[in-house]
User: Fold these one by one.
Assistant:
Number 1:
Amino acid sequence: MTIRVMLVDDQVLLRTGFRMVLAAQPDMEVVAEAGDGVEALQVLRSTPVDVVLMDVRMPKLDGVETTRRICSEPEPPKVLILTTFDLDEYAFSGLKAGASGFMLKDVPPGELLAAIRSVHSGDAVVAPSTTRRLLDRFAPMLPSTGKEAQHKELERLTDREREVMVLVAQGLSNGEIAARLVLSEATVKTHVGRILTKLGLRDRVQVVVLAYETGLVRAGGHG
């Protein structure tokens, strides 16, 4: 199955470079390009896309707002934010807007291709530790006070699921969570799946963001 990719970046040279890398892959095809968010939204109305590589700093409509609009559509493509800086407020805002992860623009081609495949298969591609660093830095921007009471879905989690959610938000992998809770990795994976389903979340990135927003985990990673 071919992964249909869209490139959204105002730098033509960068899009050309990405297109050359992707074109060499037997399982990928660049089906669309856009130089800004407005153009991207127009193209997406008529072109089926699986994964969008989204620049954040663009004229007319930036990547964060474009991502928010894309992700609010029914059955949207996955969005992978491309940023110049590791700890960039745009990357943080992109995750909040619904992106499945972010990558640095100078990422080695192999890592970019692996990220596209991961996002397409439903995984998040931000390392939990990186997500945590982002959230620790930008936690003051989160309206955490009192939000846990508003988010009634959290009440649907079992005590064990809440425990797992806290550890996911602290940046632990399934294997590390399994060791911490003396469970099998398969059991942890099942718990994470149930958390995603009950809370209507797409991936681990959204779990981390929600855990911070609701105050389940505080800045510094402590539940």
Number 2:
Amino acid sequence: MEMPGFLYGFYERKLQRSLDPERIPRHIGVMVDGNRRWARQFNAPTSQGHQAGADKIHEFLGWCQELGVKVVTLYMLSTDNMNRSSEELDLLMAIIANTLDRLDEDAEISVHAMGAPELLPDYLAARLNRLTARTPTREKLHVNVAVGYGGRREIVDAVRELLHDAVARGADIGKLADELSVDDISRFLYTRGQPDPDLVIRTSGEQRLSGFLMWQSAYSEFYFCEALWPAFRKVDFLRALRDYAGRQRRYGS
């Protein structure tokens, strides 16, 4: 049964007040899943689901700014998604481009692009480059936009860049192989210099990683929500944060 509006608002405020600011995750990864299924529920075109999902992204980022989250990584388009029909991809790319334009309007958000720009249309890759180069007047939230992203590809790209760097420095490759460490590879990931995600949220009821931040999420906490992404409410987010705050994080065995 759906909660009446005034009771829902009361419950949401109560949940938010109960959160310990010291237990808010610094970095949250979000797998924005379920746009197409949401559209099918309403017999709406797929593009309407993607647009509703894009609108939810901006709403979600507002919640993060309000609650003090510092970094958000959005899994918006995977390399596997590039196999969808050209018609759907064209519409999706246009919606992503519009989403980037809206992010560009927020003076408190900085943006970093993650993925393979060569897989994207020139206009979208150009917008990502321009937005990444922009310096916000006052940064309150850093947003990683994973577009044309694949977790395995990221690791391969990191190792490739590490090797190119070693060759450029005239390093002994054999010695590098013997001494290679986790930190060596981490220095060349798309998220280099950033904290690993404390919490990864996936909507739509699916419970798998799908290649998202495979390296960085080794010790992340995961929260799976049944709501489809366009229907993800602030109260769902607050529940995820409450669940995270109640966990005892373990780094290792």
